[in-house]
Amino acid sequence: MTRIWLCGWLLAGLLVLGVAQSETQPFDEWFVDRMHGFKVRLPEGWSVKVSNGLPIFTKDHCFVVVGATTYQQDLKEVARHVVRGLRTLQMEQPKLAFRAIPQGVQIVGEGLGYPYALNPMIVLTPTPFPTRFSLVGLILKGQKVALIVLFLFPEDTPASVRKEMIELVRTLEFLPASQRVEWKTTVLEDPLLGIPYGTINVPKGYTVVGTPMQQGTKHLYRYEVKHGNFLCRTDFVDLNTYAVMAGAMANATTTIIYNGNSSALSAPYTINAPEDAEKLLLAMWQLETNKEWKVVSRQVKEKPPLPAPIPMPMLSEQRHWVVTLTAQSGDLERVAMVSLMLTNFSDPHYIASTSSQYASLFIGVAQYPKQQRNFHQSVVRGIAASVNPSVEWSLAAFQAFTQTNKDINRTVLEYLEQRREDNSKMARTWTNALSDQTYIRDPDTGEVFKVYKRVWDTDNFWREPVFGRIIGTIGKETKLGELLKESGWKVMDESLAGFPE
Length: 501
Fold this sequence. Notes:
Blueprint: H1 2-7, H2 10-23, E1 30-33, E2 38-41, E3 47-51, E4 54-59, E5 62-70, H3 75-89, E6 95-101, E7 104-112, E8 133-140, E9 145-154, H4 159-171, E10 173-174, E11 183-188, E12 198-203, E13 207-215, E14 218-227, E15 230-246, E16 249-258, E17 261-264, H5 274-289, E18 294-303, E19 316-329, E20 332-347, E21 353-369, H6 373-386, E22 388-389, H7 391-434, E23 437-441, E24 448-452, E25 460-463, E26 470-474, H8 479-486, E27 490-491, E28 493-495
Protein backbone atom coordinates (compact mmCIF):
# COMPACT_ATOMS: atom_id res chain seq x y z
CA MET A 1 0.00 0.00 0.00
CA THR A 2 2.80 2.40 0.88
CA ARG A 3 4.53 1.84 -2.46
CA ILE A 4 1.32 2.45 -4.41
CA TRP A 5 0.49 5.64 -2.56
CA LEU A 6 3.99 7.08 -2.75
CA CYS A 7 4.31 6.42 -6.47
CA GLY A 8 0.87 7.87 -6.98
CA TRP A 9 2.52 11.21 -6.23
CA LEU A 10 4.66 10.91 -9.33
CA LEU A 11 2.64 12.75 -11.96
CA ALA A 12 1.47 15.47 -9.59
CA GLY A 13 5.01 15.84 -8.23
CA LEU A 14 6.45 16.39 -11.70
CA LEU A 15 3.89 19.09 -12.35
CA VAL A 16 4.77 20.76 -9.03
CA LEU A 17 8.45 20.80 -9.99
CA GLY A 18 7.71 22.48 -13.31
CA VAL A 19 5.70 25.20 -11.60
CA ALA A 20 8.27 25.65 -8.84
CA GLN A 21 11.02 26.40 -11.35
CA SER A 22 9.47 29.73 -12.29
CA GLU A 23 7.17 30.42 -9.35
CA THR A 24 9.89 30.71 -6.71
CA GLN A 25 11.77 33.38 -8.68
CA PRO A 26 15.26 32.54 -7.40
CA PHE A 27 17.15 34.98 -9.61
CA ASP A 28 15.62 38.48 -9.59
CA GLU A 29 12.24 40.16 -9.88
CA TRP A 30 12.43 40.22 -13.69
CA PHE A 31 11.80 37.00 -15.59
CA VAL A 32 14.16 37.26 -18.56
CA ASP A 33 14.12 34.64 -21.31
CA ARG A 34 16.77 35.37 -23.95
CA MET A 35 15.91 32.25 -25.90
CA HIS A 36 12.32 33.21 -26.61
CA GLY A 37 12.99 36.93 -26.51
CA PHE A 38 11.01 38.52 -23.69
CA LYS A 39 11.19 39.76 -20.15
CA VAL A 40 8.39 40.35 -17.69
CA ARG A 41 7.70 41.02 -14.03
CA LEU A 42 5.84 37.99 -12.73
CA PRO A 43 3.46 38.63 -9.82
CA GLU A 44 3.73 36.17 -6.95
CA GLY A 45 2.43 32.71 -7.78
CA TRP A 46 2.60 33.11 -11.56
CA SER A 47 4.63 30.75 -13.73
CA VAL A 48 5.53 30.72 -17.41
CA LYS A 49 6.02 28.08 -20.05
CA VAL A 50 6.66 28.30 -23.77
CA SER A 51 4.67 26.19 -26.21
CA ASN A 52 5.21 26.42 -29.97
CA GLY A 53 7.24 29.54 -29.33
CA LEU A 54 4.40 31.29 -27.49
CA PRO A 55 4.83 32.38 -23.86
CA ILE A 56 1.95 31.20 -21.66
CA PHE A 57 1.62 32.69 -18.18
CA THR A 58 -0.53 30.85 -15.66
CA LYS A 59 -1.75 30.90 -12.07
CA ASP A 60 -4.68 29.01 -10.52
CA HIS A 61 -6.08 28.01 -13.96
CA CYS A 62 -5.81 31.59 -15.23
CA PHE A 63 -3.90 31.99 -18.51
CA VAL A 64 -2.32 34.85 -20.38
CA VAL A 65 -1.20 33.95 -23.91
CA VAL A 66 0.90 36.31 -26.02
CA GLY A 67 1.55 35.86 -29.72
CA ALA A 68 2.07 37.76 -32.93
CA THR A 69 1.05 37.34 -36.54
CA THR A 70 1.70 39.12 -39.79
CA TYR A 71 -1.30 40.54 -41.61
CA GLN A 72 -2.01 42.31 -44.86
CA GLN A 73 -5.74 42.97 -44.50
CA ASP A 74 -7.53 44.68 -41.61
CA LEU A 75 -7.36 43.34 -38.07
CA LYS A 76 -10.94 42.10 -38.19
CA GLU A 77 -9.79 39.28 -40.46
CA VAL A 78 -7.17 38.37 -37.87
CA ALA A 79 -9.90 38.44 -35.22
CA ARG A 80 -12.11 36.12 -37.30
CA HIS A 81 -9.19 33.69 -37.63
CA VAL A 82 -8.59 33.76 -33.85
CA VAL A 83 -12.30 33.20 -33.11
CA ARG A 84 -12.43 30.26 -35.53
CA GLY A 85 -9.41 28.74 -33.81
CA LEU A 86 -11.00 29.18 -30.37
CA ARG A 87 -14.20 27.48 -31.51
CA THR A 88 -12.18 24.58 -32.92
CA LEU A 89 -10.46 24.02 -29.57
CA GLN A 90 -13.73 23.99 -27.60
CA MET A 91 -15.81 20.86 -27.08
CA GLU A 92 -18.93 23.02 -26.67
CA GLN A 93 -19.75 26.13 -28.66
CA PRO A 94 -18.95 29.23 -26.55
CA LYS A 95 -20.34 32.72 -27.09
CA LEU A 96 -17.63 34.74 -28.86
CA ALA A 97 -17.70 38.22 -30.33
CA PHE A 98 -15.26 40.96 -31.33
CA ARG A 99 -15.36 44.68 -31.95
CA ALA A 100 -13.03 47.39 -33.19
CA ILE A 101 -11.36 49.66 -30.62
CA PRO A 102 -8.86 52.49 -31.18
CA GLN A 103 -5.88 50.22 -30.43
CA GLY A 104 -7.09 47.37 -32.68
CA VAL A 105 -9.72 44.70 -31.98
CA GLN A 106 -11.18 43.40 -28.75
CA ILE A 107 -12.47 39.81 -28.41
CA VAL A 108 -14.81 38.69 -25.61
CA GLY A 109 -16.18 35.24 -24.85
CA GLU A 110 -18.12 33.36 -22.22
CA GLY A 111 -19.11 29.75 -21.64
CA LEU A 112 -15.71 28.41 -22.70
CA GLY A 113 -14.54 25.04 -21.42
CA TYR A 114 -11.15 24.31 -19.88
CA PRO A 115 -8.36 25.37 -22.30
CA TYR A 116 -6.71 21.95 -22.45
CA ALA A 117 -4.47 23.05 -25.33
CA LEU A 118 -2.71 25.44 -22.94
CA ASN A 119 -2.34 22.91 -20.13
CA PRO A 120 -2.90 19.36 -21.44
CA MET A 121 -1.33 17.75 -18.35
CA ILE A 122 -4.30 18.90 -16.25
CA VAL A 123 -6.12 15.71 -17.26
CA LEU A 124 -3.66 13.74 -15.09
CA THR A 125 -4.14 15.71 -11.88
CA PRO A 126 -6.30 14.16 -9.14
CA THR A 127 -7.85 17.45 -7.99
CA PRO A 128 -10.97 18.92 -9.61
CA PHE A 129 -10.55 21.95 -11.85
CA PRO A 130 -12.95 24.63 -13.20
CA THR A 131 -14.93 23.92 -16.36
CA ARG A 132 -16.43 27.32 -17.27
CA PHE A 133 -14.13 30.07 -18.51
CA SER A 134 -14.34 33.63 -19.75
CA LEU A 135 -12.15 35.22 -22.40
CA VAL A 136 -10.91 38.72 -23.07
CA GLY A 137 -8.58 39.18 -26.03
CA LEU A 138 -6.76 42.09 -27.63
CA ILE A 139 -5.33 42.30 -31.13
CA LEU A 140 -3.06 45.34 -31.22
CA LYS A 141 -2.10 46.73 -34.59
CA GLY A 142 1.45 47.34 -35.75
CA GLN A 143 2.91 48.24 -39.10
CA LYS A 144 3.08 44.66 -40.41
CA VAL A 145 2.70 42.54 -37.29
CA ALA A 146 -0.30 42.29 -34.99
CA LEU A 147 0.22 41.49 -31.31
CA ILE A 148 -2.34 39.03 -29.89
CA VAL A 149 -2.98 38.91 -26.14
CA LEU A 150 -5.56 36.47 -24.74
CA PHE A 151 -6.78 36.40 -21.13
CA LEU A 152 -8.57 33.16 -20.19
CA PHE A 153 -9.81 32.72 -16.64
CA PRO A 154 -12.51 30.83 -14.67
CA GLU A 155 -15.77 32.71 -14.39
CA ASP A 156 -15.38 33.10 -10.61
CA THR A 157 -11.83 34.51 -10.77
CA PRO A 158 -11.37 37.30 -8.17
CA ALA A 159 -10.87 40.86 -9.41
CA SER A 160 -7.43 40.92 -7.74
CA VAL A 161 -6.18 38.07 -9.95
CA ARG A 162 -7.63 39.68 -13.10
CA LYS A 163 -5.75 42.83 -12.14
CA GLU A 164 -2.53 40.81 -11.84
CA MET A 165 -3.08 39.54 -15.39
CA ILE A 166 -3.29 43.08 -16.71
CA GLU A 167 -0.25 44.27 -14.74
CA LEU A 168 1.74 41.29 -16.02
CA VAL A 169 1.08 42.21 -19.65
CA ARG A 170 1.91 45.86 -19.01
CA THR A 171 5.42 44.88 -17.89
CA LEU A 172 6.00 42.51 -20.81
CA GLU A 173 8.85 43.58 -23.09
CA PHE A 174 10.28 41.92 -26.18
CA LEU A 175 14.06 41.77 -26.50
CA PRO A 176 15.86 42.99 -29.62
CA ALA A 177 17.49 40.40 -31.85
CA SER A 178 20.94 41.36 -30.53
CA GLN A 179 20.00 40.17 -27.02
CA ARG A 180 18.43 36.88 -28.05
CA VAL A 181 19.96 33.41 -28.12
CA GLU A 182 19.32 31.13 -31.07
CA TRP A 183 17.80 27.79 -30.17
CA LYS A 184 16.52 24.58 -31.64
CA THR A 185 13.81 22.14 -30.58
CA THR A 186 14.92 18.66 -29.55
CA VAL A 187 12.64 15.66 -29.21
CA LEU A 188 13.37 13.70 -26.03
CA GLU A 189 13.11 10.02 -26.98
CA ASP A 190 12.16 7.18 -24.65
CA PRO A 191 13.06 3.75 -26.08
CA LEU A 192 11.84 2.06 -22.87
CA LEU A 193 8.20 3.00 -23.40
CA GLY A 194 8.50 3.50 -27.16
CA ILE A 195 6.91 6.98 -26.94
CA PRO A 196 8.78 10.32 -27.03
CA TYR A 197 8.80 11.97 -23.63
CA GLY A 198 8.25 15.41 -25.12
CA THR A 199 10.25 18.32 -26.48
CA ILE A 200 12.77 20.82 -25.14
CA ASN A 201 14.31 23.96 -26.63
CA VAL A 202 18.08 24.32 -26.20
CA PRO A 203 20.52 26.99 -27.42
CA LYS A 204 22.45 26.09 -30.54
CA GLY A 205 25.83 24.59 -29.69
CA TYR A 206 24.61 23.15 -26.38
CA THR A 207 24.35 19.39 -25.85
CA VAL A 208 21.21 17.80 -24.48
CA VAL A 209 20.78 14.25 -23.23
CA GLY A 210 17.43 12.71 -22.27
CA THR A 211 17.44 9.64 -20.05
CA PRO A 212 14.44 7.44 -19.30
CA MET A 213 14.73 5.36 -16.15
CA GLN A 214 12.76 3.23 -13.75
CA GLN A 215 13.09 4.19 -10.11
CA GLY A 216 11.37 1.57 -8.03
CA THR A 217 8.07 1.12 -9.85
CA LYS A 218 8.06 4.68 -11.19
CA HIS A 219 8.92 5.52 -14.79
CA LEU A 220 10.82 8.83 -14.80
CA TYR A 221 12.56 10.95 -17.40
CA ARG A 222 15.44 13.34 -16.78
CA TYR A 223 17.26 15.70 -19.11
CA GLU A 224 20.62 17.43 -18.92
CA VAL A 225 21.76 20.40 -21.02
CA LYS A 226 25.48 21.24 -20.94
CA HIS A 227 27.89 23.76 -22.42
CA GLY A 228 31.28 24.19 -20.74
CA ASN A 229 30.66 24.99 -17.05
CA PHE A 230 26.95 25.54 -17.75
CA LEU A 231 24.41 22.85 -16.99
CA CYS A 232 20.66 22.64 -16.57
CA ARG A 233 19.18 19.32 -15.52
CA THR A 234 16.61 17.40 -13.49
CA ASP A 235 17.41 14.91 -10.73
CA PHE A 236 15.24 12.45 -8.79
CA VAL A 237 15.99 11.15 -5.30
CA ASP A 238 14.02 8.66 -3.21
CA LEU A 239 15.07 8.04 0.39
CA ASN A 240 13.50 5.08 2.22
CA THR A 241 14.22 4.49 5.92
CA TYR A 242 12.85 1.58 7.95
CA ALA A 243 13.32 1.17 11.72
CA VAL A 244 12.41 -1.54 14.26
CA MET A 245 12.40 -0.80 18.01
CA ALA A 246 12.07 -3.43 20.74
CA GLY A 247 12.58 -2.16 24.27
CA ALA A 248 15.99 -0.51 24.44
CA MET A 249 17.09 -2.11 21.17
CA ALA A 250 16.70 -0.36 17.81
CA ASN A 251 17.77 -1.09 14.26
CA ALA A 252 17.33 1.13 11.19
CA THR A 253 18.39 1.06 7.55
CA THR A 254 18.19 3.64 4.76
CA THR A 255 18.14 3.03 1.01
CA ILE A 256 18.73 5.88 -1.43
CA ILE A 257 17.73 5.79 -5.10
CA TYR A 258 19.37 8.55 -7.13
CA ASN A 259 18.43 8.83 -10.80
CA GLY A 260 17.58 5.15 -10.96
CA ASN A 261 20.64 3.87 -9.06
CA SER A 262 19.99 2.28 -5.67
CA SER A 263 22.36 1.79 -2.74
CA ALA A 264 22.23 1.42 1.04
CA LEU A 265 23.64 4.22 3.19
CA SER A 266 26.27 3.31 5.77
CA ALA A 267 24.10 4.90 8.47
CA PRO A 268 20.33 5.57 8.64
CA TYR A 269 19.26 9.05 7.53
CA THR A 270 15.87 10.68 8.00
CA ILE A 271 14.52 13.99 6.75
CA ASN A 272 12.52 15.91 9.33
CA ALA A 273 12.78 19.39 7.79
CA PRO A 274 14.00 21.03 4.55
CA GLU A 275 17.37 21.63 6.22
CA ASP A 276 17.98 17.87 6.29
CA ALA A 277 17.28 17.62 2.56
CA GLU A 278 19.66 20.54 1.99
CA LYS A 279 22.50 18.70 3.80
CA LEU A 280 21.85 15.59 1.71
CA LEU A 281 21.88 17.59 -1.53
CA LEU A 282 25.15 19.38 -0.68
CA ALA A 283 26.80 16.06 0.21
CA MET A 284 25.71 14.59 -3.13
CA TRP A 285 27.07 17.62 -5.01
CA GLN A 286 30.39 17.32 -3.20
CA LEU A 287 30.69 13.68 -4.24
CA GLU A 288 29.74 14.59 -7.81
CA THR A 289 32.10 17.55 -8.30
CA ASN A 290 34.79 16.93 -5.66
CA LYS A 291 34.09 20.53 -4.56
CA GLU A 292 32.59 21.92 -1.37
CA TRP A 293 29.38 23.90 -1.89
CA LYS A 294 28.17 26.62 0.47
CA VAL A 295 24.56 27.83 0.53
CA VAL A 296 24.31 31.62 0.17
CA SER A 297 20.52 31.96 0.02
CA ARG A 298 17.41 29.83 0.42
CA GLN A 299 13.64 30.11 0.14
CA VAL A 300 11.29 27.60 1.77
CA LYS A 301 7.55 27.36 1.20
CA GLU A 302 5.41 24.70 2.82
CA LYS A 303 2.46 23.63 0.73
CA PRO A 304 -0.57 21.42 1.40
CA PRO A 305 0.21 17.72 0.95
CA LEU A 306 -0.73 16.27 -2.40
CA PRO A 307 -3.88 14.13 -2.25
CA ALA A 308 -3.32 10.41 -1.80
CA PRO A 309 -4.99 8.15 -4.42
CA ILE A 310 -5.85 5.53 -1.76
CA PRO A 311 -6.85 5.77 1.93
CA MET A 312 -3.86 6.21 4.21
CA PRO A 313 -3.18 4.47 7.55
CA MET A 314 -4.26 6.46 10.59
CA LEU A 315 -0.72 6.71 11.99
CA SER A 316 0.85 8.61 9.12
CA GLU A 317 2.04 12.15 8.48
CA GLN A 318 2.48 13.89 5.13
CA ARG A 319 4.32 17.15 4.40
CA HIS A 320 5.30 18.99 1.25
CA TRP A 321 7.78 21.82 0.72
CA VAL A 322 9.09 23.75 -2.27
CA VAL A 323 12.69 24.79 -1.57
CA THR A 324 15.00 27.04 -3.60
CA LEU A 325 18.74 26.99 -2.82
CA THR A 326 21.58 29.05 -4.19
CA ALA A 327 25.04 27.63 -3.47
CA GLN A 328 28.54 28.60 -4.56
CA SER A 329 31.86 26.84 -4.99
CA GLY A 330 34.75 28.96 -6.22
CA ASP A 331 33.62 30.84 -9.33
CA LEU A 332 30.67 28.48 -9.92
CA GLU A 333 27.11 28.96 -8.72
CA ARG A 334 24.31 26.40 -8.49
CA VAL A 335 20.60 26.98 -8.07
CA ALA A 336 18.38 24.06 -7.08
CA MET A 337 14.59 24.13 -7.08
CA VAL A 338 13.35 21.19 -5.01
CA SER A 339 9.89 19.76 -4.50
CA LEU A 340 10.24 17.74 -1.28
CA MET A 341 7.47 15.31 -0.37
CA LEU A 342 7.70 13.49 2.94
CA THR A 343 5.63 10.69 4.46
CA ASN A 344 6.11 9.11 7.89
CA PHE A 345 4.42 5.88 8.98
CA SER A 346 4.41 4.29 12.44
CA ASP A 347 3.10 0.96 13.73
CA PRO A 348 3.33 0.75 17.54
CA HIS A 349 3.38 -2.66 19.20
CA TYR A 350 3.93 -3.77 22.80
CA ILE A 351 6.71 -6.15 21.71
CA ALA A 352 8.34 -4.40 18.72
CA SER A 353 7.20 -1.21 17.03
CA THR A 354 8.15 -0.21 13.48
CA SER A 355 8.37 3.11 11.66
CA SER A 356 9.24 4.07 8.12
CA GLN A 357 9.87 7.25 6.16
CA TYR A 358 9.59 7.88 2.45
CA ALA A 359 11.10 11.08 1.07
CA SER A 360 10.87 12.02 -2.61
CA LEU A 361 12.88 14.90 -4.05
CA PHE A 362 12.17 16.27 -7.53
CA ILE A 363 15.10 18.59 -8.27
CA GLY A 364 15.83 21.11 -10.99
CA VAL A 365 19.52 22.12 -11.00
CA ALA A 366 21.30 24.93 -12.85
CA GLN A 367 25.05 25.68 -12.75
CA TYR A 368 26.98 28.52 -14.35
CA PRO A 369 29.97 30.84 -13.77
CA LYS A 370 29.07 33.66 -11.37
CA GLN A 371 30.61 36.25 -13.69
CA GLN A 372 27.96 35.57 -16.37
CA ARG A 373 25.11 35.06 -13.93
CA ASN A 374 22.48 37.24 -15.63
CA PHE A 375 23.06 35.77 -19.08
CA HIS A 376 22.99 32.16 -17.94
CA GLN A 377 19.96 32.70 -15.73
CA SER A 378 18.00 33.90 -18.74
CA VAL A 379 19.07 30.80 -20.68
CA VAL A 380 18.08 28.49 -17.80
CA ARG A 381 14.65 30.06 -17.72
CA GLY A 382 14.21 29.58 -21.44
CA ILE A 383 15.18 25.91 -21.25
CA ALA A 384 12.99 25.13 -18.21
CA ALA A 385 10.00 27.00 -19.64
CA SER A 386 10.23 25.13 -22.95
CA VAL A 387 10.04 21.58 -21.55
CA ASN A 388 6.76 20.14 -22.83
CA PRO A 389 6.11 16.55 -21.70
CA SER A 390 3.50 14.72 -23.72
CA VAL A 391 0.27 13.43 -22.24
CA GLU A 392 0.75 10.19 -24.19
CA TRP A 393 4.07 9.51 -22.43
CA SER A 394 2.63 10.33 -19.02
CA LEU A 395 -0.30 8.00 -19.58
CA ALA A 396 2.02 5.24 -20.81
CA ALA A 397 4.29 5.75 -17.79
CA PHE A 398 1.33 5.59 -15.43
CA GLN A 399 0.00 2.48 -17.18
CA ALA A 400 3.42 0.78 -16.89
CA PHE A 401 3.63 1.81 -13.24
CA THR A 402 0.15 0.38 -12.59
CA GLN A 403 1.00 -2.91 -14.30
CA THR A 404 4.27 -3.21 -12.37
CA ASN A 405 2.42 -2.69 -9.09
CA LYS A 406 -0.19 -5.25 -10.10
CA ASP A 407 2.59 -7.77 -10.73
CA ILE A 408 4.20 -6.93 -7.38
CA ASN A 409 0.89 -7.19 -5.55
CA ARG A 410 0.17 -10.55 -7.21
CA THR A 411 3.60 -11.84 -6.21
CA VAL A 412 3.11 -10.64 -2.63
CA LEU A 413 -0.34 -12.25 -2.44
CA GLU A 414 1.05 -15.51 -3.80
CA TYR A 415 3.85 -15.35 -1.24
CA LEU A 416 1.40 -14.69 1.60
CA GLU A 417 -0.85 -17.49 0.40
CA GLN A 418 2.14 -19.84 0.29
CA ARG A 419 3.13 -18.72 3.78
CA ARG A 420 -0.38 -19.43 5.05
CA GLU A 421 -0.34 -22.84 3.39
CA ASP A 422 3.12 -23.59 4.82
CA ASN A 423 2.01 -22.52 8.31
CA SER A 424 -1.14 -24.61 8.04
CA LYS A 425 0.85 -27.60 6.81
CA MET A 426 3.33 -27.18 9.64
CA ALA A 427 0.50 -27.02 12.19
CA ARG A 428 -1.06 -30.22 10.81
CA THR A 429 2.32 -31.94 10.83
CA TRP A 430 2.98 -31.14 14.49
CA THR A 431 -0.58 -32.09 15.47
CA ASN A 432 -0.30 -35.47 13.77
CA ALA A 433 3.18 -36.11 15.15
CA LEU A 434 2.07 -35.39 18.72
CA SER A 435 -1.08 -37.50 18.37
CA ASP A 436 0.76 -40.52 16.86
CA GLN A 437 -1.04 -40.47 13.53
CA THR A 438 -0.19 -39.85 9.90
CA TYR A 439 -1.70 -39.89 6.41
CA ILE A 440 -1.00 -42.47 3.73
CA ARG A 441 -2.00 -42.46 0.06
CA ASP A 442 -2.31 -45.22 -2.54
CA PRO A 443 0.06 -44.11 -5.35
CA ASP A 444 -2.14 -45.79 -7.99
CA THR A 445 -5.70 -44.90 -6.94
CA GLY A 446 -4.99 -41.72 -4.96
CA GLU A 447 -7.01 -42.92 -1.97
CA VAL A 448 -5.96 -41.29 1.34
CA PHE A 449 -6.19 -42.94 4.79
CA LYS A 450 -5.47 -41.68 8.30
CA VAL A 451 -3.56 -44.35 10.27
CA TYR A 452 -1.87 -44.82 13.64
CA LYS A 453 1.92 -44.52 13.71
CA ARG A 454 4.53 -43.34 16.21
CA VAL A 455 6.57 -40.42 14.92
CA TRP A 456 9.90 -42.24 15.39
CA ASP A 457 8.72 -45.26 13.38
CA THR A 458 10.44 -45.01 9.96
CA ASP A 459 9.00 -48.17 8.37
CA ASN A 460 6.30 -48.19 5.68
CA PHE A 461 2.66 -49.11 5.20
CA TRP A 462 1.84 -51.71 2.53
CA ARG A 463 -1.35 -52.46 0.56
CA GLU A 464 -2.44 -55.88 -0.74
CA PRO A 465 -3.09 -55.81 -4.54
CA VAL A 466 -6.37 -57.83 -4.66
CA PHE A 467 -8.55 -56.88 -1.68
CA GLY A 468 -6.76 -53.62 -0.77
CA ARG A 469 -5.90 -54.65 2.78
CA ILE A 470 -3.38 -52.33 4.48
CA ILE A 471 -0.75 -53.49 6.93
CA GLY A 472 2.17 -51.75 8.59
CA THR A 473 4.69 -50.90 9.47
CA ILE A 474 7.31 -52.95 7.65
CA GLY A 475 10.65 -51.75 6.28
CA LYS A 476 11.41 -52.06 2.56
CA GLU A 477 14.81 -53.62 3.15
CA THR A 478 13.60 -56.28 5.56
CA LYS A 479 13.03 -59.95 4.57
CA LEU A 480 9.26 -59.51 5.05
CA GLY A 481 9.31 -56.38 2.93
CA GLU A 482 11.05 -58.24 0.09
CA LEU A 483 8.44 -61.04 0.27
CA LEU A 484 5.57 -58.52 0.19
CA LYS A 485 7.08 -56.83 -2.82
CA GLU A 486 7.47 -60.15 -4.64
CA SER A 487 3.79 -60.89 -3.91
CA GLY A 488 2.65 -57.62 -5.53
CA TRP A 489 2.11 -55.55 -2.41
CA LYS A 490 2.85 -51.83 -2.89
CA VAL A 491 4.35 -49.25 -0.54
CA MET A 492 1.99 -46.41 0.40
CA ASP A 493 3.00 -42.73 0.18
CA GLU A 494 3.11 -41.06 3.58
CA SER A 495 2.82 -37.48 4.88
CA LEU A 496 2.34 -36.12 8.38
CA ALA A 497 0.83 -32.94 6.85
CA GLY A 498 -1.70 -34.79 4.72
CA PHE A 499 -2.16 -34.70 0.96
CA PRO A 500 -3.79 -31.91 -1.10
CA GLU A 501 -7.07 -32.90 -2.74
